[in-house]
Amino acid sequence: MFEDFADIHVYIEVMRGGTLAAAAEKLDRTAASVGRRIRAIEKKAGAQLFTRKGRRLLPTREGELIFEFARRIAEELEGAEAQLKHLAGPSSGHLRITAPVLLGQAVFSKLVPEFMADNPECILFTNLTNRAIDLEEEGYDIALQIGATHRESLTSEYLGTLETGIYTAARGTWSYCADFRHPSELVGLPVMQFSNDDHHADILRLNGPREVAMEVGVRELIVSTDTQTLISAVHNELGLAVLPTFAGHPGVYTGELKRVLPDWYVARESVSIVLPTRRLIRPVVRAFLNFIHKRVGSAMLKVDL
């Protein structure tokens, strides 16, 4: 249906521009030549790919299907061309990345400036959101994900392990809790939980050495997905807080917080880099993957991003 790569570009620009004139301007061609190529593509496809409404070209269902194939082919050919150049210097091009809000803040705030300093020609877009993202549909190159992915259209690369533990203020009412040696000492204490589920927040589930697990009854106080709210409450001596280690450890490093029962954890989850399986990995994407694998490992996620 497409005679060459130029036909693919013509079709894509007509879809994006919505008119022959807009596509012609983008391609530096005449509207008549663009129209001829579209008619030739439709003839070879054996289907009407656009309906005409004045000057506007509206894609039919078949036209939208062909566009998805054309877009993927264009991306893969451009990626192959870029890889064959064997660029020795910094990577360039657009890079679109998404991640859950808290994880993205912890990782990107420290690593993005460093990556951009090494790759100044890269144009980076990051979107931090807790909603489900369709990488292919929304045009993202990479996603950071907590937990495993089971979609065949996505490739997952293990990055590290994310742990949540219990923290207390280093000074004040609850600082003595840092000396606890067993979870039973937590019974009845006010514990603020990092969670999006406020059911059974009066029960703290802990995992310890040699795969020992136990539940402890605590006083329910605050349940939040905002780590700063929980840390502020700890500093105001409201009680203890369950926090991801990337949120709690900076306070330990500065001497403001202490880890309670450091050999015990509340949860551990894998963190992965996810990318579309059928999309050729462009040099700028590969550069970011190599960079983040070097800078973020299991130990770093568990201690300090």
Automatic annotation (TrEMBL):
The keyword ATP-binding does not apply. The keyword DNA-binding applies. Residues 1-60 form the HTH lysR-type domain. It comes from the Bacteria. PROSITE patterns: HTH_LYSR. SUPFAM superfamilies: Periplasmic binding protein-like II (SSF53850), Winged helix' DNA-binding domain (SSF46785). InterPro entries: LysR-type_TF_proteobact-type, LysR_HTH_N, LysR_subst-bd, WH-like_DNA-bd_sf, WH_DNA-bd_sf. Keywords: DNA-binding, Transcription, Transcription regulation. One of its GO terms (molecular function) is sequence-specific DNA binding. One of its GO terms (biological process) is DNA-templated transcription. It holds the Pfam family HTH_1. Belongs to the LysR transcriptional regulatory family. This is LysR family transcriptional regulator. The lineage of its organism: Bacteria, Pseudomonadati, Acidobacteriota, Holophagae, Acanthopleuribacterales.
